[in-house]
Fold Proteasome-activating nucleotidase.
Amino acid sequence: MSRSPSLPERPRLDLDPDMTPEERLEALRDHFEDIVRVNEQLTEQLNDARDRRQDLTDEVDQLERENETLKTSSLYIATAEELTDDGVVVKQHGNNQEVLTEVSPSIRDSLEAGDRVAINDSFSVKEILDPETDARAQAMQVDGSPDVTYDDIGGLEEQIREVREAVEEPLVNAQQFRDVGIEPPSGVLLHGPPGTGKTMLAKAVANETDATFIKMAGSELVRKFIGEGARLVRDLFELASERQPAIIFIDEIDAIAAKRTESKTSGDAEVQRTMMQLLSEMDGFDDRGEIRIIAATNRFDMLDRAILRPGRFDRLIEVPNPDVAGRERILEIHTEEMNLSEDVDLRAMARETDGLSGAELASLATEAGMFAIRDQRTTVEQRDFRDALEKISQDEETGSQPVAFA
Ligand SMILES: Nc1ncnc2c1ncn2[C@@H]1O[C@H](COP(=O)(O)OP(=O)(O)OP(=O)(O)O)[C@@H](O)[C@H]1O
């Protein structure tokens, strides 16, 4: 801050008793001139001070306005990494920038290392995020014991065999791999059209091996949890190691592992970071114990080949739409609990449903049941299946969604 200029000295009048009246008059005149000069200087300084005060008032107003905006503007998400005597080290999500920042005593008392916090533009910690708003809980679906079995999956015998070999065997028979001296496949990639049973396959292996099933959807990572993708991927593997044996299932992996594009927008950079984190987790995977990783995609063509290298997703399993025998089996599975009339011919329905996925066949069975209910019957007849098929084909033409099916 600039120092205020010093005040001019007060003029002094020195009258000598020996002075002649003329000399006294002269001295008084000089004194009068000095007073006028000092008065002018003081007036000038007073005016300067008034201007300065006005400037400062304007500055305060502006700062107050900025402060208000800061208080109401968005906050960034960070993790409190370390609590030190000099302050708190926070790491901002997204760009991983680490800063030492101060925290108000009221927040400091309840803050622990590892907490997710909201920080403002000046990196000051504004609040500690509630664990309920924690993205980790929202982004991952954890199922201690999924109830899907291999018997619930129709028409994928070959795929089930491959998944058992690549995922189940290394989990239940790890010693066998050690004895032979080979590494089991690190990751298995299931690829094929939507609704063909990829998620079911992953859940069934988890069930069969008594492993925890942990699912994360790639699309949600990039859409819902912007800036947190890489951290969530790290958390995913951490959680799996806490809950092993575990099956990590990454659905829609294409959302985070698409081929690199030329553009360098921040969104792309963020997706890249998420993918790099996934690759590094997979590369350090050998010593992770009883964790297996399965990913799924409907867009195999879009994948960055880097994720298919040995030691990463090196076992590819195609999960296509079911053939006629597969469709019949899927219809049998999904009508098992239904009260079917004698005339129902599932084989005939299987022949008529070429191109339908497992999920669509599941909806077909539900829709058929709905037609029976509409007709106030408790038995489902062949005509209900035909009506349901017609409805599903129409829905497909108009683009509306088939009945949601568990
Ligand atoms: N092969 C199948 N056998 C029995 N049911 C199936 C089969 N495929 C799909 N379904 C039914 O469709 C539903 C959805 O299947 P699932 O979620 O496993 O498909 P997905 O391949 O993972 O789909 P997406 O690619 O859209 O994620 C299942 O809950 C099940 O009811």
User: Anything to note?
Assistant: Residues 76-128 form a domain with the OB fold (Dihydrolipoamide Acetyltransferase, E2P) fold (CATH 2.40.50.140).
